[in-house]
Amino acid sequence: MSEALASSNTDINFALIRKDFAILHQQVNGHPLVYLDNAATTQKPQQVIDAVARYYQLDNSNVHRGAHALSDRATADFENARRKVQQFINAPKAEQIIWTKGTTDSINLVAQTYARSQLKAGDEVLVSAMEHHSNIVPWQMVCEQTGASLRVIPVLETGELDMAAFASLLNEKTQLISVGHVSNALGSINPIKEIVRQAHAVGAKVVVDGAQAAPHLTIDVQELDCDFYAFSGHKMFAPTGIGVLYGKEALLETMPPYQGGGEMIEVVSFEKTTYNQLPYKFEAGTPNIAGAIGMGAAIDYLNQYDRPQLLAYEDALLHKAEALADAFDGIRRVGTAAHKTGVMSFLMDGTHPHDVGTLLDQQGIAVRTGHHCAMPIMEQFKIPGTIRASFSFYNNEEDIARLFEALNKAKMFLC
Ligand code: 7TS
Questions:
Q1: Which of 143, 226, 373, 415 is catalytic?
Q2: Which residue, by CA, sits nearest to atom 16 of ligand 1?
Q3: pLDDT band, residue 66 (cuts 50/70/90)
Q4: pLDDT digits over 310-369, tens only?
Q5: For the domain with range 49-303, which CATH number is right: 3.40.640.10, 3.30.460.80, 3.40.1440.60, 3.40.50.150?
Q6: Residue 415 among the catalytic residues
Q7: Is the CB of 107 under 6 A from ligand 1?
Q8: Is residue 320 packed enough to be buried (19+ CB in 10 Å), middle (13-18) or exposed (0-12)?
Q9: pTM beyond 0.90
């Protein structure tokens, strides 16, 4: 257990949390690091690093096939991690949790199995204008393969979905809607439950890109009633190269496999191959065992805390940063939705985002600049990109003060 949680006291000590993240305590370019690029990837607490190291030191073995103790232990830990993910998103069964490489892989899986086998010419797939490229390109590819059309839910100036336009796009041709739970470029939280309700009323299925939601929001796939939910380990304090696809059981059962290989088969002969049961039908080859175990450890780490309390703290940091940005002469924020989390995107008058990013880096401050793999929404706002500060619960007010000090210096230098 983290020192940050005293056993008799449920108030989280956010200063102590930072001790779990050794990487934060270093100098970058001669300054203490301020890490505000959490939407790209989060840092890993020591507990996750230790779980991965322990697996390699003590249990390393292949899963589901060895007739020996190490393989039994690796298999038990790997499947236990799947059950932790099941509970983390309140999925009905562990079999509905499919290990993938990450959100991108999860969305491609749905596109190339479910969508490719279901869509036909004339059908329609909807995505929103604020999606990450991972939630656009796989749908363009499957539309090209099947003759279906991709239609776009517009986004308002505030960075909120245009729900009236969404309602008018829905019709009997709509088969699938794929939308982000939280926008990586703008921070908007989209009304997934309402989208699902309206989609189901016309018989369409809903895929949710939860990459930016999983690190912040409490996710309940049964309450959302979405058909698929995709997210990445590395954005929620787990290793890179591991992710999750959740699907409704009846849909997963009818879907053809994704890739062929070991693990995903029941019986192979040259005449006929039969496929394994869920979830293994979708997990060809040796999986990322250490990644899955790290994901389980990240969930254990989060579960020690009251997650709404973590979110309230992160949102308080975001609001503080937004207030300072609004008071800063020459900064314009991009993405001002009423419901937001995690991300502050902005521009500084008379400067290019990349130049500001470079000057921040020289002062030890890590942000991301550019289009954030969401070129269509940048194009709509007629901007080349933004400067993006993205927050986690290990950030603090000092980080925000340092960001604005550095922005002041950047402004003096560039303007
Ligand atoms: N969807 C959203 C909303 C994302 O933010 C990202 C990654 C992805 C999908 C893809 O996730 P992956 O783990 O498969 O790569 N977003 C970002 C970002 O904002 N900066 O770097 C990566």
A1: 373
A2: 40
A3: confident
A4: 999 999 999 999 999 999 999 999 999 999 999 999 999 999 999 999 999 999 999 999
A5: 3.40.640.10
A6: no
A7: no
A8: middle
A9: yes
